[in-house]
């Protein structure tokens, strides 16, 4: 299949998919997996991950549509991934707001007993953001599954499709096995890096196949 010929608007969607996808992967790995940056930078990356993920999913949908491959399973994959992006952004904001404000209150408290009560409250409300983490894991696993199913059926990418469905099923299974705690909080492996790696490979495939034709 030759490189598709796009209008200027469609080329912009190609570049949005490329840039947003790379940024989403970068933000995820360097805010949640590899803690090599100062906390202030890590917070920015964590905040940016969700919007970049949702934007990349929408842009991939436009690429698939313009290439004539906008099929039902890909539609569901885009929808689930967008919801996952919203969920993880809510988790990031809630988590950071809770810890920032409660840490300030703990520092300002004079009595040690008050500090201890505030710490107990902090760890209590921390379950709210942990719950959003599980919501994110469910939706991103669903998005991965439907993208993988689409890759298998529509793109004839058998290995990629089967691997994606297996990874997403394992991610859901681990999350359900450790409810209400996220897998990483329960001493099990975190399926996130595997899901992110598969998403990166899938995005790379769509980007390469959707590369606009050069003017002749």
Description:
This protein has 216 residues and is mainly α. The chain has one domain. Helix content is 80%, strand content 0%. The chain has 6 helices and no strands. It has helices at 8-33, 39-66, 72-108, 112-153, 158-178, 192-209. The protein is elongated, with a radius of gyration of 20 Å. It starts with 7 loop residues before the first helix and ends in a 7-residue tail after the last helix. The mean pLDDT is 87.
Largest sheet: none
* Beta-strand content bin: under 5%
What structural category characterises the helix and strand content? mainly alpha
Q: What does the average pLDDT come to?
A: 87
Q: Please report the distance between the alpha carbons of the first and last residues.
A: 18 Å
Helix content: over 70%
* Overall outline: elongated
What are the segments in which pLDDT stays under 50 over at least 5 consecutive residues?
A: none
* Strand segment tally: 0
Number of domains: 1
- Following the backbone from N to C, one meets helices and strands in this order, namely HHHHHH
* Rg, alpha carbons: 20 Å
Number of helical stretches of at least 4 residues: 6
Task: Please give a handful of descriptors for the protein shown.
mainly alpha; elongated
Short structural summary:
The protein has 216 residues and is mostly helical. It has one domain (8-209). Helix content is 80%, strand content 0%.
Give the SSE layout.
Elements: H1 8-33, H2 39-66, H3 72-108, H4 112-153, H5 158-178, H6 192-209
């Amino acid at each position: 299949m030759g490189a598709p010929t796009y209008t200027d608007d469609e080329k912009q969607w190609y570049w949005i998919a490329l840039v947003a996808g790379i940024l989403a992967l970068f933000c995820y790995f360097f805010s949640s997996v590899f803690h090599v940056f100062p906390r202030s930078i890590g917070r920015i990356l964590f905040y940016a991950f969700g919007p970049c993920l949702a934007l990349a999913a929408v842009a991939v949908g436009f690429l698939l549509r313009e290439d004539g491959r906008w099929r039902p399973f890909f539609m569901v994959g885009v929808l689930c991934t967008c919801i996952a992006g919203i969920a993880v952004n809510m988790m990031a904001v809630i988590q950071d707001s809770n810890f920032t404000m409660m840490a300030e209150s703990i520092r300002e408290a004079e009595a040690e007993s008050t500090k201890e009560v505030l710490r107990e409250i902090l760890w209590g409300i921390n379950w709210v953001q942990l719950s959003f983490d599980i919501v994110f894991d469910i939706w991103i696993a669903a998005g991965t599954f439907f993208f993988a199913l689409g890759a298998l059926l529509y793109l004839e990418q058998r290995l990629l499709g089967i691997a994606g469905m297996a990874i997403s099923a394992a991610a859901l299974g681990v999350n359900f096995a450790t409810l209400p705690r996220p897998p990483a909080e329960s001493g099990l492996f975190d399926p996130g890096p595997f899901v992110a790696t598969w998403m990166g490979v899938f995005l790379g495939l769509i980007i390469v196949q959707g590369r606009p034709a050069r003017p002749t």
